Amino acid sequence: MKAIVVTPQKPGVDIREIEIQEKGEIRVMTRLSGLCGTDRGIVNGDLDFARPPPGNDYLVLGHETLGEVVEGNDRLRKGDLVVPVVRRGCGECLNCKVGHQDFCETGKFTEIGIRGAHGTMREEFWDSEENLVKVAPSIGEIGVLLEPLSNVVKATRELESIQRRMLWRCEDSTYQCRTAVVLGSGPIGLLFSLTLKTMGFNVIVANRRPPSSVEEEIVKATGSIFINTSSEQLPEMDLLVDTSGHPSAFVPLLQKIRKNGALVLFGTTGKERAEITAEDVTRIVENNVVIMGSVNASKDDFQQGGNLLVTWKEMYGEVMSKFITRKVSVEEAPEVLEHKVPGEIKTVIKWK
Amino acid sequence: MKAIVVTPQKPGVDIREIEIQEKGEIRVMTRLSGLCGTDRGIVNGDLDFARPPPGNDYLVLGHETLGEVVEGNDRLRKGDLVVPVVRRGCGECLNCKVGHQDFCETGKFTEIGIRGAHGTMREEFWDSEENLVKVAPSIGEIGVLLEPLSNVVKATRELESIQRRMLWRCEDSTYQCRTAVVLGSGPIGLLFSLTLKTMGFNVIVANRRPPSSVEEEIVKATGSIFINTSSEQLPEMDLLVDTSGHPSAFVPLLQKIRKNGALVLFGTTGKERAEITAEDVTRIVENNVVIMGSVNASKDDFQQGGNLLVTWKEMYGEVMSKFITRKVSVEEAPEVLEHKVPGEIKTVIKWK
Amino acid sequence: MKAIVVTPQKPGVDIREIEIQEKGEIRVMTRLSGLCGTDRGIVNGDLDFARPPPGNDYLVLGHETLGEVVEGNDRLRKGDLVVPVVRRGCGECLNCKVGHQDFCETGKFTEIGIRGAHGTMREEFWDSEENLVKVAPSIGEIGVLLEPLSNVVKATRELESIQRRMLWRCEDSTYQCRTAVVLGSGPIGLLFSLTLKTMGFNVIVANRRPPSSVEEEIVKATGSIFINTSSEQLPEMDLLVDTSGHPSAFVPLLQKIRKNGALVLFGTTGKERAEITAEDVTRIVENNVVIMGSVNASKDDFQQGGNLLVTWKEMYGEVMSKFITRKVSVEEAPEVLEHKVPGEIKTVIKWK
Amino acid sequence: MKAIVVTPQKPGVDIREIEIQEKGEIRVMTRLSGLCGTDRGIVNGDLDFARPPPGNDYLVLGHETLGEVVEGNDRLRKGDLVVPVVRRGCGECLNCKVGHQDFCETGKFTEIGIRGAHGTMREEFWDSEENLVKVAPSIGEIGVLLEPLSNVVKATRELESIQRRMLWRCEDSTYQCRTAVVLGSGPIGLLFSLTLKTMGFNVIVANRRPPSSVEEEIVKATGSIFINTSSEQLPEMDLLVDTSGHPSAFVPLLQKIRKNGALVLFGTTGKERAEITAEDVTRIVENNVVIMGSVNASKDDFQQGGNLLVTWKEMYGEVMSKFITRKVSVEEAPEVLEHKVPGEIKTVIKWK
Fold this sequence. Notes:
The structure is a homotetramer.
Chain A: E1 2-7, E2 10-17, E3 26-34, H1 37-43, E4 59-60, E5 64-71, E6 81-84, E7 87-88, H2 94-97, E8 110-112, E9 116-117, E10 124-127, E11 132-135, H3 146-163, E12 179-183, H4 187-199, E13 202-207, H5 213-221, E14 225-228, E15 237-242, H6 247-250, E16 257-265, E17 274-276, H7 278-286, E18 290-293, H8 299-316, H9 318-321, E19 324-329, H10 333-338, E20 346-350
Parallel strand pairs in A: 8-9, 12-13, 12-15, 13-14, 15-16, 16-18, 19-20
Antiparallel strand pairs in A: 1-2, 1-4, 3-5, 3-10, 3-20, 5-6, 6-11, 7-8
Helix pairs in contact in A: 3-4, 3-8
């Protein structure tokens, strides 16, 4: 079958005919593959951790997937839409034993399309039921957003768990008195904005530039606000989510995080350093501020993300499909994998 | 009565005869006052936030107290040892309404001996029962450590609450597989080491210099290890507690915090900045690391701290009294308030 | 305006022209009123706790509401669909102070249409924004289910909070290995079945009789199973939810609750007693079983319930509207309030 | 070596010379064995679940132990006092995998001296370090109380976890406004009273008869109150702990449990049934009451229990040793195992 393959640490990407013997009782036909910074990092040879499965010299790319069951079982039937979880646990540490490979402690996990396991940028794959999450047929193509969304769900769920350390909800039991600022308006930033909005926060999406028209439309339709920080000051906030990875973007905002507030670190690709001062430390200490890094997701996060997509499809309708800014054929995939598409939110490869 | 008073923001400290009309149904005779960096910061005029009670032009110093009830009620009787809580809530925000003034959101709290309320460096004071924590008579003079300890209890309690985000306990339900490093070997550092040890952690106390003989004795007797970081490397750790306040001390250790680990920021007086890089951010994100600032304590933290002091007195006996490295008379107090006592762990003023 | 009124503790119900001076900056036109057992209990004079507002000798009935804003403000605009929360807190106890009047400890709360406050079975009412929950326009008429659903959301949220006492999720972080049995197939039973299904449980709805055709359709369409306990045995279960209120229904099932399982008590109208034996107690103790009673809901439970309705509307489409088995005019209301409608799931009054 | 052995389900108990090949790197000399109702139930042949280790036709009794290390390792040294945990996990279910065999779901655990594993009523035994909890030398003989106490610690810890479902602490962050009633004044009842007192509750110990002089002394010295329910009414309560196992004892008190309150079921040996009515169910539902059964303990519960014993020894001194109402020689053991000792709190066998 046709597959999009790379040789980790070597720049370049190919479409190739391959044959893979795989375990797993469910056969899935890939319908859409989403592209993200990790894929491009691997294609450009920049990511040290990318590696083929043991015994292979190539890696099939692809970890954002919308698939359709071709051969199933009692619980997953032919025609069901499914999304595979990305990380597969080590089986050794306590968190992996309880289905939380997102908190794996040994580092011996694999990640499809990234570390030690083939991805899903190919016509079809076999997987076991336990790694596949069924999504409602009604959500259709935006199901390809579930994988990135699952990571956002994990982060917000962990945030809520952490903030139980005191009373963080408002006088009416909701979050209506809390302001969240999301740094970055890429797909992750926008998915954070929708998730936090659904939780009840007042949400500001911030970037150093004006919004693209699609960004503007999504932010507006979902009841959030866009602030261009190159021309406007951010207000004080209870929650800051950084999707940029630039210390230079979030460190200067530490002084704007309110008492009992939190900073969620999600981005990792930033390059710009920043200096942290004793004043920053004092602010964190005196204000009981928490900073949390968050990575990956559990199967339950995928399932909750699936429910969110259904809700958003119903509430925001057409706006959700604006997330997919470009659909390319398999043949066009190498091009969009090698170079970022201008104005893109999510570029996807259409397999069938 | 005799009291130790300052004029906030003006360097200097006096012993003066004062008369104070106070609310509160319990009359308490001060027995010991502990000294800490905050007291000296106020005496030196360095702390912006220090302020007298409304309508006063002076502030009685003192927030680390061991007192004895002189006139009591049904629950607090004459002769009982008591320790007053420091922070008094704003009465407006949700956390203050539920007895968690340590998480006050309005900032309208007062703190005895620090912000807007007279402290206890005086022969006696009146207070209400709700602000007084009874301690077991058996612990005697080390009861003066309860106030600093309460802040440590709050921090570790919050840490445990936060770490419920995943499985952090070991295969046998304890913390025996976890290593905690405490930066700083002052009274707060040592109290953290004892608390974490009691919780079941393997504990390393670290400083940039060799331990003093008292530090060495306390660390050894309580089953922890001292590492002089100017000559020895710290190992990887699950928990890092900074009591130094210097970003330069803890930022370089971010790369040594293990997956799912935590950094507790407690110190605020540091001056040395540090640069945070994208690699640091990536480590925090990929490892699900949490950084939490912690300040102050609730009444319950005082009560739990009281239980800890009883336990430690029984387990470590004489070692606990080594914490009090010097006892001075009221007349000597200005001297030790103006200048740090060499080799000191805790210097106390003996009132009676 | 026209209103449906009762004199608490006196059987009977009237349609009457009334005028009410009310606080609240939002004017709401009632669109639909749902009927439940509590309404009928009040109409029949059976409920001791029903009482008019202070100074009134009558009570406007109605606590299940779908309304439309007629005069609004910045956050709630003309045309928005809203549902008022039922219980209004005492303002004195800690739980009410933090928006959890569902856990009110003083008992001094009011409940619209039930205790000390007029309900919404009238053409329109004024209320403050803080008591009104906005629902997505797309859900339309099934918004009238939000009030009963909110109580189910509270119960399952509390269940999850309680079950954090150990590991209750399955090896893949979901609830797919857990079986929940819901006793009773009325609206509350069916809403529990949908909520638990969405959470990931295997759900069995049980009753002592065969399902009505509507019950059968809803249960089937939402992926649950119906068991008629008069002819079939229930299997062992991890969760038992009783909506019947009959001790005779759930006590015999205590022996079928698995280790670490839970029994949620929700129903209160049952009459049939049951004997509890030492064997039952031993089962509860040895199996670490929890039994929890749950009543009422917070505003956040209404908001989460609103999200669930949106999800279900999208996933189950027409099936959701089957919940409303009969819509009557205001003039027909007394009839359906006095006598239970055969085969009913939810009977509603259409105001406009 | 000498051992106290039974043949499960056959009444009778013997002192016998046995030889056991055991795994485990630590050799422990038994110093004291505590006796409890389970031991006597096994000796009388009443307990169905008692069974010898696989391949054995006899069972060495004994699960309440105070031992001394004879051959140790780096962490447990010769002379250390140790207490072995009782239940050994199945290794299969999630809770056992994380050290919570007290929540074992498969039921395939063993329990020393009870189910499938030899107990410690013998001169010495080998065990692995992971099953042994070190206790402070200072607590001495009352270390034999640690095993029963561990179960109390588990129950109260679980209670606190469950009660996080709402605000249960008082306005000052403590439990000083909460009243706990403990039904039963045996060793478990008294250990509950001390634990709850240390947590900050107002504690009432209740029995159907006047207290013995020892019970009276312990209850008084630890600041609790004894109520003889045959002549005096219990007040309303926030927490009810049943150590009797009689439904007839706790069911009539359901109407006295306040809003948001809890009933902890711990006893299992009761025989007297009781009827539960719809009024009881309504009380549980309307008041958000929780009922929880609790059994066994994790290693961490033993460690926390060890800290409590140290605290109580320091605070209550001689009173703690009153718990041991009789010390018998090994030769006298069969006698006290067959018949309850009048006025006993804890009877112990002295091995050396």
